[in-house]
Amino acid sequence: MGKTIKKYWPIFVLPTLVAFIIGFLVPFAEGIYLSFCRFTTVKDAAFTGFGNYIRIFADASFLRSFGFTAVFTVVTTILINVLAFCVALLLTRGLRGTNYFRSVFFMPNLIGGIVLGYIWQILLNALLMMMEKPLLSLDATYGFWGLVVLMCWQQIGYMMIIYIAGLQNVPGELLEAAKIDGAGAWSTLWKVKIPMVMPSITICTFLTITNSFKLFDQNLSLTGGEPAHASEMLALNIYNTFYARAGAQWKGLGQAKAMLFFLLVVAIALVQLKLTRSKEVES
Amino acid sequence: MVTNEKRTARLWSLILLILSLAWVYPIVMIFLNSLKEEQAITTSAAFDLPPADTFNGLANYIRAIEAQGFLKSFGYSLFITVSSVALILLCCSMCAWFITRAKGPFSRIIYLLCVFSMVVPFQMVMFTLSQTADVLGLNTPWNICIIYLGFGAGLAVFMFAGFVKSIPLEIEEAAMIDGCNPIQTFFRIVVPILKPTLISVGILETMWIWNDYLLPYLVLDIKKYMTIPVLIQYFRGSYGKVEMGAMMASIMLTVLPIIIVYLVCQKYIIKGVIAGAVKG
């Protein structure tokens, strides 16, 4: 069968392949090359070796936004996963209104990051003003926690859905056996439910880590990196390096930062998958 | 004991109810503010209900639609999303079926490249991608779907390939022996079996493309074509006075269709999310 199908590859594979080359492979390869160049467009690139990479570490804004992003990723990953798991536990107990709660908590995921950012900017600024605190764009600490609140509000529902699916797949006999063996609610949770939903935990931590680390839209709309780039995350820092300043020296620096950003994302993904996969058990 | 359990259940329901109000409130607040007159929309009065003397009715909505070009943006967003998702579903399901059924180094390389492309952040390719799109003239709403196909192929091919693996080979072999060529086999036999996956992938891709900001902003000529996220950012991000009333009305006009679609297709959306997570 494989042989007959192979003759048809121009119909089955070619459209996707051509688009993939245009939309991904070529820009990606050019991106790697340009990170070693000084340029303003793809055509006027002049090779400069590792110059751009060395300049990244002389750029205090990159290191600062790296720190901001790292702390933000840790805080949101823990908060979102713990809260989403708790809500999922409650919603698998057959409480009244379960369907309504599930629908409401999931809803923010469908709204785009830009719109969400502005909704929360209006709300949080009003709240901060009422408490007589500085507005989001004036104090990076409030900007940080504003982003945390926004991310929790948006992502808890998504992760909750995945945890609910995981919890519903825990076999009933297993829970019954635990009960007969005299396990209370607490030890059932830690010794049966959590080990059994480990695959869901792997996926959810993976998704929250990468979502937070790569965050752009919400950052742009909620704080815009204000004040003075203090609430600027990595993706926005790269964007601003590219587009906020004119001059040949910036684009190469931006591309080198993007390359480093890409390598960081790959490293985080590999380490995280290795760590949590090893804790999964066979069901 | 039983009453005790009932009491805790009721307590949890109450806590969840309060929490769910916190989930709905931000949108309700924007709605209430969108009914106020321009000068009554201030940060300090944001929590107040629209007072009778500055009640503006739907004037902000009319302003958003008439003066700010909301409908045009809605049209662009709709066209881009529908055309891109349709193209992704068609091309990627075909590609995924081919690379799982016709094994070989060629198929293997395509599969690995697709998986690899899923971890690459957009910032890595944003500059070169927008330049490539300009050179090839793929910078209008009418053909940006090719860019979306290229950049979105990774996830779609990966998900389809995962599902195709679970389809028993015998059905397709029987069809081929009965004289179907691969194209007929794919559309008559495989597509009907793939339907649930088509819906799941379609939903995930729709959520992404409809809300995407940076790609259309960089690729399209935004003086001519603004999608909804670009329009909202333009409202707020441009210097000078921001028309808060019209902006809040635009936010509501953006959120409302999403909520309606969500209420109608909730079952599929949640299934799509779960399917996407399992494959991820």
Radius of gyration of chain A, in angstroms, nearest whole number:
23 Å
Name the CATH superfamily classification of the largest domain in chain A: MetI-like
User: H/E element string of chain A?
Assistant: HHHEEHHHHHHHHHHH
Spatial extent as radius of gyration of chain B: 24 Å
Q: Major sheet of chain B: size, sense and barrel closure?
A: none
CATH superfamily of the largest domain in chain B: MetI-like
CATH topology-level fold name of the largest domain in chain A: MetI-like fold
Indicate the structural class of chain B: mainly alpha
Tally of domains of chain A: 2
Principal-axes geometry of chain B comes out as globular
Strand residue percentage of chain B: under 5%
Number of strand segments of chain A = 2
User: What is the C-level CATH assignment of the largest domain in chain B?
Assistant: Mainly Alpha
Can you tell me the overall shape of chain A?
globular
CATH architecture of the largest domain in chain B: Orthogonal Bundle
CATH fold descriptor of the largest domain in chain B: MetI-like fold
Quaternary structure classification: heterodimer
Average pLDDT figure of chain A: 87
Helix content of chain B: over 70%
**Overall pLDDT level of chain B:** 86
